[in-house]
Amino acid sequence: MEFSSKLIEKAVNEMSQLPGIGKRTALRLVLHILKQPKEQAAFLAQALVTMREEIKYCNSCHNISDSEVCEICANEKRNHQIICVVEDIRDVMAIENTGQFRGIYHVLGGKISPIDGVGPSQLTINSLVEKVKLGQVSEIIFALSSTMEGDTTNFYIYKQIADLSIIVSTIARGIAVGDELEYADEVTLGRSILQRVPFEKSLKSN
Amino acid sequence: MEFSSKLIEKAVNEMSQLPGIGKRTALRLVLHILKQPKEQAAFLAQALVTMREEIKYCNSCHNISDSEVCEICANEKRNHQIICVVEDIRDVMAIENTGQFRGIYHVLGGKISPIDGVGPSQLTINSLVEKVKLGQVSEIIFALSSTMEGDTTNFYIYKQIADLSIIVSTIARGIAVGDELEYADEVTLGRSILQRVPFEKSLKSN
């Protein structure tokens, strides 16, 4: 792409560093910013820089938070004995949205992925294992995505806490509520049969 | 969406002002920025602000440019008698990419669109009409997209220059090179028959 302006070119190049934003999309976004008042560009820029500079992580669960301890970890009414292990803040938001979980979280910050150069030391796995060893935890629920990286990460953590007397569970995989069986993939359908639940139990879950 | 951090919330809100970026995508982009070094966020922010503050437009064709007169308008080798009327810099880039046009451009900055609150006075139509009236122009080529807004804009300009002795043309519409007829829409196929060109002429165009 040849630009008639170095300023545009630079802005497009920076924008297209973002995931899923190609040069064309970046140009569209940049041209939109050009049509807006100057303050708009300044607000966007300021919000990004301030966020990046001042962001904090909860001391306990490592979720993004504006205080030392996040609202969920600070909430006395939550069950601090049950810890749901997730990848990032999006998973916390998704599970919180269901209103079905009253425990607390542990945010790993990613999954073990040798291809992307992410090893266990870059994640908050040690902090989780320490927490479990203190003996205040009764159950760990793995809620990572069921990819090879997710399974690897689950297993890596599991090996370190398997000897401790806690329950280790993983969220149920199966056909999504409302989905038709004929369109489901074989692995999911197979798993939903193997891990079938008593009918009475399924009635209570809504 | 409920965020555990006001900083994240603000950044996501600003990002999701951009066209085609919803809250979910904005969150994905923002989390990506969080994982990058601080400088990366600063570079992006700076590029956007600098661009918005210092951007210039060519005095002649109104295209985005880093100088008073853009490279195309300043190029003596281009045919200044033929003006291609386009909507924005993307169209200039697309036509320049073909290497088939040796005239100059006139960038309108948009199309007349009452729904979006864009009237003729917000576009550079007057400047184009003035240019034509000076008598140095032999042909105007409309290259706006063939939507209702594009057609309206073409017609609005045409009315003001129809009395002047210049050629007014529009880019050819038809079946794209390489496309199969059976998948073409009726309007395009119909037009490509009505506006058929002599076979010998079609041989030269590549």
TrEMBL record, chains A, B:
Protein name per its UniProtKB record: Recombination protein RecR
InterPro entries assigned to the protein according to its UniProt record, in alphabetical order: DNA_Rcmb_RecR, Rcmb_RecR, Rcmb_RecR_Znf, TOPRIM_dom, TOPRIM_RecR
GO molecular-function term, one example from the UniProt record: zinc ion binding
Role played: May play a role in DNA repair. It seems to be involved in an RecBC-independent recombinational process of DNA repair. It may act with RecF and RecO.
Pfam families hit by this protein: RecR_C, RecR_HhH, RecR_ZnF, Toprim_4
Lineage: Bacteria, Pseudomonadati, Bacteroidota, Flavobacteriia, Flavobacteriales
Zinc finger (C4-type): 58-73
Organism: Flavobacterium laiguense
Any one GO biological process: DNA repair
Domain Toprim, chain residue ranges per copy: 81-176
Membership in a protein family: Belongs to the RecR family.
Keywords tagged on the record: DNA damage, DNA recombination, DNA repair, Metal-binding, Zinc, Zinc-finger
